[in-house]
Design a protein that fits this description.
Number of helices: 20
Strand content: 15-25%
Largest sheet: 9 strands, mixed
Strand order of the largest sheet: 7-6-5-8-9-15-12-11-10
Shape: elongated
Oligomer: single chain
Distance between the termini: 29 Å
Structural class: alpha+beta
Helix content: 40-55%
Number of strands: 17
């Protein structure tokens, strides 16, 4: 039974709201709540009352969603099993969990981690965290606990649990490798992973770290990764990665599937006779591509040849293809020759742009030689036929330029070289009719039709988008990299990959609910949600200030995301 009680204290009347009930056979008060004086009640009813002293505003939506995914994926538990410590302060798993969520939201250096962490709702989820606990030295101390092969074992345990709980479809898996440049000093002998190599972002002057990844088509889920030396060739790394992934696949699949149920998709940079022999021995199904120049008889077929048939499948507009069987890398395989109009248009524009730039530079070089021959230019080293040939070779270094533009260099008056150049329109026409817009896909899925094979190969964009996401300077998970020892770089690779996993799980959950959003849009919507904590002055006999927790105004889409991701803390056993 509920009552409104009045108590007289020191000549003043105070009101309380209470509940009474039977306890051990006697009527007792179960609880009471102080309401104040009569005028306080009137003010409250009229919407008045004391104003808050101040308000704390926390980043809520994105940290809450990602931390929930981290708890569901058992990130902390799996790390703590392999890297235990005495129960004092944050555990090793909690440090890596915080670093992973940070990498998925707003990558920060360890020195500035507390500045980010203290402005998020994670401050309440991890009450043991403090400015001292989250300084860079504490992070490094706990990263040192994850040494040797522990990062690989931790990831293996995490992903096995995720695949089982989430029932990830393993029928289509993409593989690719990339590299990340670093600012590690050239003469730093403590780091063996960072090496000089061909950097995919044009920073070959810097030491780089290579990163390879297997990724499922279902939810863009990272399945297996490795961090290795930056100077290692992709084709040489591929068999090492394939062997490790195949072992993991056998453990994950169990009775669910066999290697024959999985299709591996990779690009032509991994091709070699040894690699295909290894794939055959593992009985893996695959879809890849080969270089046009290796199959000139197919490359030289006209794009208007009658053998091409249009592909009517969704997503293959403007595509036509035909197939042949040919012995490639020691075994007869299916080759699907495709022509795509969109690819042709892009390559044609690139070719025209390259031709225009090359002709412009050749014209400038030709004019300089004529000016020198006429005596208008006298300073500088006198050019020779060899030096002009070298300059022309550099100007025509772009793909196809040597075939499209012919040059003739001969010695003229005063031994000054003369340059003549011309665009070979016949070669340009032939290239457009045979080479541009064409791809050759290789596969051992003989039962698949051309459309299905092409769609499988095009799913390679999944892993390419993952790498773009990692390298994004605003929202990417890899940079900044402020470590220079092999051990810490491997741990860095671990929590960056965990960040990819958390994002992928979150997006997959949203798409499964029928909400179609890109990763950037999803993160933007969640990131705009804030939690506001109003702090009110203490009342009589209260030891701490009163708090009122509210969310910033949310849109209809944001409300759907809150329900889909189960972020309401009063109904959430993990976060609540």
């Amino acid at each position: 039974m509920e009552r409104l009680e009045a108590k007289k204290i020191n000549g003043h009347t105070y009101y309380y709201y209470s509940e009474w009930g039977w306890v051990n056979g006697k009527c007792r008060r179960k609880w009471q709540r102080y309401l104040g004086k009569l005028e306080d009640i009137v003010k409250a009813c009229e919407g008045g009352g004391p104003a808050p002293l101040y308000a704390d505003v926390f980043q809520w939506g994105l940290p809450a969603a990602l931390w929930k995914e981290a708890l569901t994926a058992r990130i902390v538990e799996e790390i703590d099993v392999l890297c235990p410590k005495r129960k004092q302060g944050l555990s090793t798993g909690e440090y890596i969990g915080v670093a992973s969520v940070n990498r998925a939201i707003q990558p920060s250096s360890k020195r500035s981690m507390w500045n980010w962490f203290s402005q998020t709702v994670l401050l309440r989820y991890l009450p043991g965290a403090s400015k001292e606990a989250l300084n860079s030295q504490r992070f490094w101390d706990h990263m040192n606990r994850i040494d040797g092969e522990k990062p690989a074992q931790i990831w293996k345990n995490i992903i096995k649990g995720v695949v089982k709980r989430e029932d990830i479809d393993l029928s289509s898996i993409s593989y690719d490798g990339t590299n990340f440049y670093t600012f590690i000093d050239t003469f730093n002998a403590h780091c063996q992973i960072a090496k000089h190599g061909k950097n995919k972002q044009g920073r070959s002057n810097l030491r780089q770290i290579s990163y390879a990844l297997f990724c499922s088509a279902d939810g863009h889920m990272p399945l297996y990764y490795d961090v290795y030396e930056g100077n290692r060739n992709d084709a040489k790394q591929f068999p090492l990665m394939l062997e490790k992934f195949n072992r993991l696949l056998q453990e994950i699949c169990g009775q669910r599937c066999t290697p024959e149920d999985t299709t591996l998709i990779f690009d032509k940079g991994n091709n070699s006779p040894a690699n295909f022999e290894m794939i055959d021995s593992m009985k893996l199904k695959f879809v890849g591509s080969v270089k046009l120049g290796e199959h000139k008889e197919l490359m030289q077929i006209s794009n208007s040849d009658k053998r091409f048939e249009s592909c009517d499948a969704e997503g293959l507009d403007g595509t036509k293809a035909f197939r042949v069987k040919k012995t490639v890398y020691g075994k007869e395989r299916v080759l699907v020759v495709s022509y795509n109009q969109n690819l042709f248009d892009a390559q044609w524009l690139t070719l025209q742009n390259d031709i225009s730039k090359a002709i412009e530079r050749l014209a400038a070089l030709q004019q300089k030689l004529r000016d020198r021959a006429m005596g208008l230019i006298k300073k500088g080293r006198t050019p020779t036929v060899a030096s002009v040939e070298k300059q022309c070779k550099h100007i025509l270094s772009r793909q196809h330029m040597k075939q499209m533009i012919t040059t003739k260099i001969q010695e003229g008056k005063e031994k000054i070289p003369e340059l003549e150049y011309a665009l070979d329109s016949a070669a340009l026409s032939t290239l457009a009719d045979t080479h541009l817009g064409k791809n050759i896909i290789i596969s051992n899925r003989e039962s698949w039709d051309d459309s299905r094979t092409l769609k499988a190969y095009r799913s390679q964009f999944i892993i390419e988008n993952v790498f773009k996401e990692m390298k994004d300077r605003t929202t990417g998970s890899w940079w900044p990299l402020n470590h220079w020892t092999d051990s810490k770089i491997r741990v860095h690779g671990l929590y960056c990959t965990i960040a990819l996993l958390l994002r992928a799980l979150m997006l997959r959950r949203v798409k499964s609910a029928g909400i179609t959003l890109s990763m950037k849009r999803l993160m933007s919507e969640l990131d705009n949600m804030r939690q506001v904590v109003n702090i009110y002055p203490k009342k009589r006999r209260q030891k701490i200030e009163r708090k009122q927790v509210v969310l910033s105004r949310t849109s209809e889409l944001q409300d759907k995301l809150i329900d889909t991701l189960e972020l309401k803390e009063d109904k959430n056993k993990l976060l609540g």
